[in-house]
Amino acid sequence: MQTHALKLVVVITEAALETLLVKDILALGAHGYTVADVRGGGRRGVREGTWEADRNIRLEVICHDTVADAIAEHVLQRYALNYSTTVFVSDIGVLRPEKF
Amino acid sequence: MSLDPVVLFFLLGVFARLLKSDLRLPEAMYESLSIYLLLAIGLKGGVELSKHPIGPLLPQVGGVVLLGLMLPLIAYPVLRGLGRLPKPDAASIAAHYGSVSMVTFAVATAFLVDRGVAHEEYMPLFVVLLEVPGIMVGILIAKLGAGGGVRWGALAHEVFLGRSIVLLTGGLAIGWISGPEALAPQSKLFFDLFKAVLALFMLEMGLVAAGRIRELRRTGAFLLAFGTIVPCVFAVIGVVTGRAIGLSPGGAMLLGTLAASASYIAAPAAMRIAVPEANPSLSLAAALGVTFPFNIVFGIPMYHRIATALVPPAT
């Protein structure tokens, strides 16, 4: 089956940012997103997701490379200094490119 | 000192966590229990409000809001001066201590009910009134003189439409509109089962709070002292305010407990958005790791004695 090259941007960060982030990425040109509640640990300690202030989310966006760059740059610039944030971008192949 | 069963449930959670048991309450259960508790507290207060004319309560409302505005202004200089904390951290912690903990209030109410101590049953109204002002003052302190804007719209949404405010206010409104008779068919769930649900929730709170205790090793002795001494001082201020606005000893004790308690739900969420440069592990270690357990185990009985000593019984 033929696939089409696009980017997957993944942002793992504090749940408090969810509404702000979703608004930002849509404004930057993303057409959709997926959010999951996750837990984990890193340089800023462990976040176990047991209650409100202890939750992390994993936000995934499939988009074109220009939008992916814009999102990654924006997230790093605006949030990475003060919030536990991990951002990465990977190459993926999608089956229906018109969706994104 | 005999400990209430709810306190023992809390201690069970603390020990399970400290001893690294694999006990974990499902997240959905935590959510459901907290929704139940907020609604039940709101309903109870609302039903009582429906029995009172609102007019005479207004001076009390004013006094309680003033109390909420004052507490962070007292905490902030202590955090800056004695604690030598950076401005954002001091402002954020001050906001946490200006706001209140609903669960601490619930345990204090259960304490009074068990001992048959009369109190103003519309007190949940004051929980709502005390939740927001402290947070707002904390944010203003952090932003005074600092550059950079605040997204006030997003923030107001976070503070006023946060889950706890919506459920508490909603419960108050439903209870107030419905009155005791209309709610009677639901009273078994919302009122009779309250203490058992609170006990379950306290087990979870023990697990969560103990998770913060370990962080104290990193945050130092100042927060430990702050988290135990400030609640006692705030409790006295709350009790005296209660006396000034004409509350009974039981009501003044509850207001003292509210003043002594620190928020760990509404305040962290709001401060995270409004003052991102503040380190959340400091405020949570203090509010949840120190002050919450302190209030539950030692504070509440002590505030009861303070209120009994300072407030003349209603005649």
Question: What's the arrangement of secondary structure elements?
Answer:
The complex is a heterodimer of chains A (100) and B (315).
Chain A (H helix, E strand, L loop, with lengths): L3 E11 L3 H10 L6 E5 L1 E3 L2 E3 L8 E8 L1 H14 L6 E10 L6
Antiparallel strand pairs in A: 1-5, 1-6, 2-5, 3-4
Chain B lengths: L4 H14 L8 H23 L8 H24 L5 H12 L3 H13 L9 H20 L8 H9 L2 H21 L3 H6 L1 H20 L2 H4 L1 H24 L4 H12 L5 H9 L5 H31 L5
Taken in chain order, the helices and strands of chain A follow as EHEEEEHE
User: Helix content range of the residues of chain B, please?
Assistant: over 70%
- Spatial arrangement of strands, main beta sheet of chain A: 2-5-1-6
- Report the uncertain regions of chain B: none
The share of residues in helices of chain A is 10-25%
The count of helical stretches of chain B stands at 15
SS class of chain B? mainly alpha
How would you describe the overall organization of this protein?
- The complex is a heterodimer of chains A (100) and B (315).
- With 100 residues, chain A is an alpha+beta fold.
- Chain A is built from 2 helices and 6 strands, in the order βαββββαβ.
- The radius of gyration of chain A is 14 Å and the shape is elongated.
- The mean pLDDT of chain A is 93.
- Chain B is mainly alpha-helical.
- Chain B contains 15 helices and no strands.
- Chain B is globular.
